[in-house]
Design a protein that fits this description.
By secondary structure, this protein is of the alpha+beta class. The protein is 11% helix and 21% strand.
């Protein structure tokens, strides 16, 4: 999706912002956070090279981890709870 936006010889300014949202049913980061976002930054200074690439993770199992703080009024938390919802048996 990202690299298919340009052809060989094109300039990088033709690239449009690309955001990926990964909703996972496993803990994929060691962070004590329900959701996290990543960008392209320089390792030592933290300088953000560009804002046109973002990767987000919503880790559903962390909803049930009592050691992780969550705000029930946060729309992202509400969406995560909705996505984890189970149907009631009829």
């Amino acid at each position: 999706m990202y690299t298919s936006q340009i052809k060989p010889g094109d300039t990088y300014d033709k690239l449009k912002k690309c955001v990926t949202i990964n909703i996972v049913d496993f803990k994929c980061t060691p962070l004590k956070k329900l959701y996290s976002s990543y960008h392209v930054t320089e390792d030592k200074s933290g300088y953000r090279l560009t804002d046109i690439l973002e990767v987000h993770f919503l880790e559903i199992p962390k909803l049930f981890d009592d050691d992780i703080e969550k705000d029930e009024n946060d729309p992202i938390v509400q969406w995560m709870e909705f996505l984890d919802g189970k149907s009631k048996a009829a």
